[in-house]
Design goal:
Helices cover about 25% and strands about 20% of the residues. The chain is globular. Strand 2 and strand 3 form a beta hairpin. The chain contains two helices and five strands; from the N terminus they run αβββαββ. It has one domain: HIT-like (HIT family, subunit A, 2-Layer Sandwich), CATH 3.30.428.10.
Length: about 110
């Protein structure tokens, strides 16, 4: 199974419009958005899912949550509201931990 985030985004094969980047985390505008505002936040380390995190990932998770908090605050300030979403199991299309920060009504 391919990992879009590792194979395409983090490798640089797919260009993304970055919103915020730290040493271990990248937030960028979704390449195929489902909402008027659709930002994805990912760890640069491959972690398959939220439920596969282990104690060794605690610092990375704190850094990731910090980026999500900052991006969510920016989106809420600009748009009045946002949702922060992660998918698990069969709902998770790409098996790389990622969070969506979205605002507006979903596209049909």
């Amino acid at each position: 199974m391919t990992d879009f985030y590792c194979d395409e985004v983090l490798s640089g094969k797919t260009h993304v419009n970055k919103v915020l980047e730290t040493e271990n985390v990248l937030a960028y505008h979704h390449t195929r958005p489902f909402y008027p505002v659709h930002i994805v936040a990912i760890p640069k380390k491959h972690i398959p899912s939220f439920i596969t995190l282990d104690e060794n990932d605690n610092e990375l998770l704190l850094e990731l949550m910090g980026v999500i908090k900052k991006v969510s605050a920016m989106v809420t300030e600009e748009n009045g509201a946002c949702k922060v979403i992660t998918n698990l199991g069969n709902y998770q299309e790409s098996k790389h931990l990622h969070w969506h920060i979205v605002s507006g009504k979903p596209f049909k």
